[in-house]
Amino acid sequence: MSASTAQGGSDARRASRWLDEELWLGRLLLAPAVIYIVALVGFPFFLAIFFSLSDATVGSTTLHFAGLRNYEGILEDPTFWRSLQNAIVFTLISQALVVVLGKVLAMALYRDFRGKWLVRLLILLPWVAPISLGSIGWLWIFDPIYSIINWSARGLHLFGPGTWPIWLGQPDLAMASVILVNVWRLLPLATVIILAGLSAIPQDIHDAAQVDGAGFWRHLFMINIPLVMPIMLVALLFGIVFTFTDMIVIFVLTRGGPFDTTQVIASYAFFTGVEGGDLATGAAISLFLFPVLVAVAIVFLTIARRAEVS
Fold it and tell me: What per-residue string of b and e applies to 66-85 under the rule 16 or more CB within 10 Å gives b?
């Protein structure tokens, strides 16, 4: 046997030994995901930090170091604070509705009934369909002239002759409208997650509660909610992240109007940095999302872990 053949056999055995070790095998399997995350999230994140510390603009090939000047200007901008307030209101109200309605739908779908597969399909459609197309559909529904809501309410005599809401043109109605669309979009995801948590509860626990004579409400608050609480918190965390960082619903329906009453941080960063051409300020605005989301993730994951342990 030649030396090269022996060396090749030794290398093959060494590689096989590495693959047999859980540590190296785990690292090898995680490597594609790590590379993907770094390329998709890490590089844009550090690029945004670099832009936020400069005077970069669209169409310019040169930039200069600006320090914290962009951040100082943002903190003095009333539109930024209004966008932050709108983002918080938009997120909290929509996610409260998503969690409550998701729990109700999950409990309804947990039971066996005829046509269950069709109901599940209809509930999942808003999540499967592209959100841009769904938002365009809602844009037609809220149309100030041809709104099916207004015409149906007029036909059912719910609206008087002088009542004709402009859903996306009145500040309060505009915020309520975008919240409704966001709930419609995220409700399927929360329902599926909570339904998985309900399915993981052993049937013996339900049988024991039934033998003990527990009614619906006692069974709900003493068994269902406590046991599903960790997974409900995970669903809430995903919903908060998706809602706080998303701008598609706002962009398609209101573009932040009327009078910035539906402007959120994500949309304000886009309009400032991309459409306004001020890349530096837009990047600085978008970076304000990061500490908020990190804090929310730490709090919710800690609560979910404690609830799971207890």
Answer: beebbbeebeeeeebebbbe
Q: Report the predicted TM-score, pTM, of the whole model to 2 decimal places.
A: 0.82
- Rounded distance between C-alpha atoms, residue 186 and residue 244, angstroms: 12
As for how many domains the chain has, the answer is: 1
- Give the CATH number for residue 96: 1.10.3720.10
- Residue 288: which domain range? 76-309
Residue 301 domain flag = yes
Q: What is the C-alpha separation between 122 and 125, in angstroms, rounded?
A: 5
Of 249, 214, 220, the residue nearest 91 (C-alpha): 249
Structural domain contains residue 34? no
- Token readout for 106 is 């999950």
pLDDT tens sequence across 29-68: 888 888 887 787 778 888 888 888 888 888 877 788 888 8
